[in-house]
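Lab notebook, bench 4. Still working through the backlog of constructs that have no structural model yet. Next entry is a single chain of 611 residues. Request: give me the structure tokens for it.
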Amino acid sequence: MILTTLRLSIFILSLYGYAALFAFRLGFHKQMSWIASICAQILILYAGAYLGFLPITGWVLFAVGMILSLYYFIKERRYRFFEINFVTIGMTVYFVVFAGTLLQTYLEHYDNYSHWAIIVKFLYTEGRLPTATDSIISFTSYPLGSSLFVYYTTLIAGFSDQIMLVGQFILIISSLYALFVILRDRRRRLITAMMFTFFAVFNHFNIAIRINNLLVDYLLAVLTLAGIAGLFHLQKDSKRMAWYLVLIVGTLSMIKNSALFFVGVLFLYYLYLLIKNRKQSKNHSRYFGIGVAALVASMLPFLTWLAHVRSNFPQSKHEVSLSAYQQMFEQKDYAILEQITDLYVSTITDFSILSTQGILLVNVLFIGGYLIIRWGFNRKNTLLRYAVATNAMIIAYYFGIYLMFLFSMPTEEALYLAGFERYASTIVILALGICMLVLAREIDYTFYEPIVVKRNYRSYKNIRTKKIYQYTTLFLIFVATLLFLSENNGMRYNNANFADSVPARFSQVVGNEMKLNEQRYLVVTTNKEAVENYQVGFVGTYFLYSPHVFGREDFVMDQEPFIALLEEYDKIVVLEEHFTFNVMMEQSFETSLQPGVYEVAEIVNQTLTTE
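Model written out:
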């Protein structure tokens, strides 16, 4: 644990080197520099992987980051990069507490193993992009954005569940840190406390997956928010705004195919800012030329990934392809389409559903905030305008989810809206984040002294309003702390129950195989549900590091079919003692198997020799 923490700390020190470079040499705000520099590193890693030099690229990036960190921290004496204020203290505590929990956490949700953990393990052991011969990768069309950074973390800090989780959390918290760039006055703790409360509320609406996994639904939302906040901050600086768009969108588009929706959101906002601020440039053709170039350049990573997929994989699961969508859609008849539609409508209009509650909360905050500021403080504001835009975005996203169930999801999964709450949580968090950013600006303008430079400890209308400000700040800090601790305790509770999970069984019995192989494994388990929902297969594929892992719970059969079944495999993995399986083993081979890994050939040959 001490060695892991030390290696992780050195890795973060390397990240600081790049963040300092972006802040002190490239002119990005310190709160934006972390996520901007991390996105740059992800794109460099992708370029290295595409050219066949992934491990070398990772080590060179780390070495250069360490040199930069020593240069800025020692020679340049840039201690003020770590300015002590309410924001940095809060974010540091947030990171330390949650990272400490994640360093004791194991992957649990089986969707982790269907792609995310397996692709990171593949990158770590093979050091290259997958090709058609690598059958262990099922979701071959999924881009590698966040997985590349998680791989980079394991390359430097060591491979484990815990390091992978912390690596992804670094991405998340860097995105959240960038949101504070929209603050007009960082001394006003009320708005900062409000933003921390929103972060805690994000966790509540992310409860379907939490942050103790490698799924990217939450990351998509917070990275998009970081993009929005950064573009807003840089809107008067067209060149840096263009570079920031390239970094954020280039990375966002490489996280998951569904990220294209959020790329569209950023594109629309970027174009809006370009048009809004066009008068700042005398040369309009050059001004808009930079904008168009940024839009094109930001999509190059995704386009090169599509080229890689099409050149290496004749058929790819979840590929962005009209022909693939048409084929999936044609498998559903009218009755099935009607059933999916009815279920979808009833789900999104159900007030007991968490995502629906989140959308209602967003509208209450927007409308309530507008009424209070407009009539309570007699000031016009933009909350209603952004409420309309946010709701339009939500409607478009929900329509997109509906089309996904119709066109790109297998019928069996579409009939019960598989993963709906997880997908919906992304747009809810994004909508809440937009609401938070708008409220932060509007509340600041509502203060008694609207001019920031004139503010001091006396900048209140009277003693009563000052006390309201202070008590409200304390209340928000209390609520945020309570919600953060609740989320952290929830993860600790899951950790306490990990020993009974399927991943824990695999870990205890087989360890974690790090050499890719083509062995055929029969996994014997008493967990019927885990077999039927493919959890045993996905988790086994990760731990055994083979694409040929099959779970089975039912062994009620005659002796001859039982022997024939075993001979289809190279190895037998017994997760827990199985009564029926051992009865058949006694009848067929005069032996029983305790939890462990066994060679089928040895069992069969021993019996033949005895006979």
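Notes after review: The longest helix spans residues 463-496. Strands lie at 520-524, 548-552, 571-574, 596-599. Flag for follow-up if needed.
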